[in-house]
Write a structure and sequence with these properties.
Helices cover 54% and strands 16% of the residues. It has a 5-stranded mixed sheet. A hairpin with a 2-residue loop joins strand 2 and strand 3. The longest helix has 33 residues. With 378 residues, the protein is α/β, with parallel strands linked by helices. It has 13 helices and 11 strands. The structure holds zinc ion. The site of zinc ion has 8 residues, from strand 1 and helix 2. The site of zinc ion (ZN) has 8 residues, from strand 1 and helix 2.
C-alpha cells in the first residue's frame, strides 16, 4: 500500500476523473472515491474474514485501520495543498494505496510542504499509537490470556504499519512523495525539468532494483509494486518533458485557426450535422462577432436526446467556457485546461482568434519532439 500525490499535468490527455471509481463521500470539499478494484479487495477480505480463525477479527481491524491511515495521508496532502491555494480534484483509493490529484503542479517550495504532509500524518499516527500502547500496556498484559495474543498488540501493529507507510513514501524516487520532496530540493539549483528527470530516473532505478529483488526472493507482491513504481516514474518524466517543450511557447503558436463556428440561431440538428461532417468536437457559438458560448460534443448529444433536433443551441452552449489569451504560456494554458475541460477559446479581448484542445496540444508536443515548430496548429 502506498500513498501518493499526483498533479494532473500529464500531456497524455489528462482526464477530468479517473474512470471506474465510485464516489463515496466528501472531506474538506474534496470528493473521495473508491476504485472498483478497491471494492473487489474489500469484498475479498470480507469473504476471507468469514473464516472463523481466532485472529481474523484482528486482521480485519488491522487492514481497515491501514486503509484509514492511507486516507488520512491523502487528506494531509489535500489540506496543505488548499492552504497554498492548490485545489485537489479528488482523492481516489486503489488497492495498493491512495492518490490525491491536484488541479495544477505547485511551485517547488509549496510542493515540498504538500508532499511532506502525507508521510508526516503517518509519522504522527505512529507516535500517537505507540504512546497510547505504552500507556495502556500494563493493564492489558493481564487480559492477554483471555484474548488472542495477536489482538493485544494490534495498536502496535497499526503503529508500525504507519511507520512503514511513511518510510516507503519517503523513498527519494518518483512517484513516491519522497521523489517530489527530492525534486523540490533539487529545484533550488537546477531547472524544474532537470530536477524532474533526476527524480524520475531515481524512480525507474528503484523500480528495477525492487523488481529484481522480488524475482530473486520470489516475493511477487514486491514485483507487482515495482511495476507500478516504474510506470509512475516514467509517466512523471514524460509529463515533465511535455512541460519543458511548452515552456516559453505562446498559446497562439499551438491554437487551431481553421475551425467552424455555430450561430446562436442554429438548431441542435445543424450542430449534429457539423459534428458528422467535420473532425471538430467543440464549437464556439457566435452572435454576430460576439462569442456567446462553447458547445462540446457531450452537451450536443445530451441536447439531442433531451430536447430533440429542433431546439436552439444558444440555450445548450456553456457560457462559462475557459478563455485563454493568445500570449499566455502553453504550460500555464495546459494547467488551466486540466481543470476546466478539453477545449478552450483563445480570445483577444472580445475577438475570437482560435481554439485550443487537448488533442491539438498533444499533436503540438509530438511535432516539437521531432524538432518541428509549427507556426500555427493544424
Ligand atoms: Zn503521499
Amino acid at each position: 500500500m502506498r500513498g501518493a500525490v499526483s498533479p494532473e499535468s500529464s500531456v497524455n490527455r489528462p482526464q477530468p476523473k479517473i474512470p471506474g471509481a465510485i464516489r463515496a463521500f466528501t472531506v474538506f470539499g474534496v470528493p473521495v472515491r473508491f476504485h472498483f478494484t478497491f471494492l473487489l479487495l474489500v469484498a475479498f477480505l470480507i469473504v476471507v474474514g468469514l473464516d472463523d480463525r481466532p485472529s481474523a477479527m484482528g486482521d480485519a481491524i488491522f487492514i481497515g485501520a491501514l486503509f484509514a491511515s492511507v486516507l488520512l495521508h491523502e487528506i494531509g496532502h489535500a489540506v496543505v495543498a488548499r492552504h497554498f491555494g492548490v485545489r485537489t480534484i479528488e482523492i481516489v483509493m486503489f488497492p495498493i494505496g491512495g492518490v490525491a490529484r491536484l488541479a495544477s503542479s505547485p511551485p517547488a517550495r509549496k510542493e515540498f510542504w504538500i508532499a511532506s504532509a502525507g508521510p508526516l500524518v503517518n509519522l504522527i499516527i505512529t507516535g500517537a499509537l505507540l504512546g497510547i500502547a505504552a500507556y495502556t500496556q500494563p493493564e492489558m498484559s493481564g487480559m492477554e490470556t483471555l484474548t488472542d495474543p495477536s489482538d493485544a498488540d494490534l495498536l502496535e501493529r497499526i503503529a508500525y504499519g504507519n511507520l512503514i507507510l511513511a518510510l516507503f513514501n519517503l523513498l527519494p524516487a518518483f512517484p513516491m512523495d519522497g521523489g517530489r520532496i527530492l525534486r523540490s530540493v533539487l529545484a533550488i539549483w537546477k531547472s524544474d525539468e532537470a530536477a524532474t528527470q533526476i527524480a524520475s530516473r531515481a524512480g525507474r532505478t528503484l523500480a528495477v532494483a525492487m523488481g529484481l529483488y522480488g524475482l530473486i526472493s520470489m516475493q511477487f507482491m514486491l514485483l507487482f509494486i515495482a511495476f507500478f513504481v516504474y510506470l509512475g516514474a516514467a509517466q512523471e518524466g514524460q509529463a515533465a518533458m511535455g512541460r519543458s517543450l511548452m515552456h516559453g511557447v505562446p498559446v497562439r503558436a499551438a491554437m487551431i485557426t481553421k475551425f467552424v463556428a455555430l450561430s446562436h440561431g442554429d438548431t441542435v440538428g445543424d450542430a449534429a450535422k457539423l459534428l458528422l461532417d467535420s473532425a471538430q468536437q467543440d464549437f464556439p457559438v457566435l452572435h454576430g462577432e460576439q462569442v456567446v458560448g462553447l458547445l462540446d460534443r457531450h452537451a450536443l448529444l445530451r441536447a439531442m436526446a433531451a430536447e430533440g433536433a429542433d431546439a436552439y443551441i444558444a440555450g445548450e452552449a456553456d457560457r462559462g467556457f475557459l478563455r485563454l489569451s493568445p500570449d499566455m504560456d502553453l504550460a500555464e494554458a495546459m494547467n488551466q485546461m486540466a481543470e476546466a475541460g478539453p477545449c478552450a477559446l483563445v480570445m483577444d479581448g472580445d475577438r475570437l482568434l482560435g481554439l485550443l484542445t487537448r488533442e491539438n496540444l498533444s499533436e503540438f508536443i509530438l511535432l516539437r519532439k521531432v524538432g518541428m515548430t509549427p507556426e500555427v496548429g493544424r
